[in-house]
Design a protein that fits this description.
Blueprint: H1 2-19, H2 23-39, H3 41-52, H4 57-75, E1 82-87, E2 92-96, E3 101-106, H5 111-124, E4 128-133
């Protein structure tokens, strides 16, 4: 229980820092995460297959490419920080506000691709994330 408390405390601190960042700063972090995931796509796929025994590692490479490169390409130009839209006529505005700490549940079937895409979408929205991996996919 203490480990969980420590993780949440660290994630809260990180989220406060993320919430103070500009769109450009967030986008720089998100790109670095996507690049790292893509760069390690094969190594991570082999590790996931070795540890869990599930699937075919080559298929996991494809999932890691999708989770890193394709998800990144889809979200990279999205505005997710601050004022998103303003309609002066209707007197309505959309403002993006981070929610805080996200709980990321990680299955043993696709642990690496799940971590990559959940990280990207959480950070892109200015949220931090704490992962809870399946016991068969702790590494």
């Amino acid at each position: 229980m203490q480990e969980v408390r420590n993780l949440i405390e660290s994630a809260n601190k990180a989220q406060k820092e993320l919430a103070a960042m500009s769109q450009q700063q967030i986008d720089t972090i998100v790109k670095a995460i996507a690049d790292a995931g893509y760069g390690a796509r094969e190594k991570l796929a082999k590790m996931a297959h070795e540890e869990t025994g599930f699937g075919i590692w080559q298929d996991k490479v494809i999932k890691n490419v999708f989770a890193s490169k394709h998800v990144y390409n889809y979200i990279k130009d999205m505005k997710t920080i601050g004022m998103l839209k303003e309609d002066n006529e209707k007197k309505v505005m959309e403002v993006a506000v981070p929610l805080g700490v996200v709980a990321g549940l990680i299955p043993s079937t696709n642990p690496t691709s799940t971590v990559i895409y959940k990280t990207l979408i959480s950070i892109k929205a200015g949220n931090s994330i704490v992962f809870s991996p399946h016991p068969n996919a702790l590494k």
